[in-house]
Amino acid sequence: MSFCLHVLFILLLQQTTTGNNGASSTTIVSQADTTVYTVVESPPEFPGGISSLRHYIERNSKLPIAAKKGKNTITIGLKLLVERDGQISAVEVMEVDGVEGRKQEKYEQEARRIVSGMPRWKPGSQDGRRLRTYFWVPILFKRIF
Predict the structure, then answer these.
(1) Of 76, 83, 127, 135, whose CB neighbour count within 10 A is largest?
(2) What pLDDT is attached to residue 145?
(3) Cβ within 8 Å of residue 124, ≥6 positions away
(4) Is there a domain that residue 128 lies in?
(5) Is residue 74 a part of any domain in this protein?
(6) Residue span of the structural domain in which 66 resides
(7) Are strands 36-37 and 129-142 parallel, antiparallel or unpaired?
């Protein structure tokens, strides 16, 4: 009985993938792996790439977005955690430039709101394995206050 449970456990941890040549390879993936990577072979990618990400931010922001950094811009730098399935699970404000106090909160809240509605990303990977990966997204707002 113990042997059967052990075999069942191993089978549950296996993930089978098929390469371009049709050959199968088996990789054991632990669901308990909580490691987060900052540098990987293939970084996470918003669907359609960086230009689509920029377009998404412009379309979904309730505050005006700046095309480039200047004296009348406010930068909110966000660190996103892109999970293995492409979902964003954590958002942390890492940089705020050009605003302070109550006004800062308004810009931070808007940046978080924009990111919270994002579709699933293509996750980061290393050697074909999907990994939990951080990704940095700066949002440049035009100063309106």
Answers:
(1) 76
(2) 65
(3) 37, 40, 42, 43, 44, 82, 130, 131, 132, 133, 135
(4) yes
(5) yes
(6) 34-142
(7) parallel
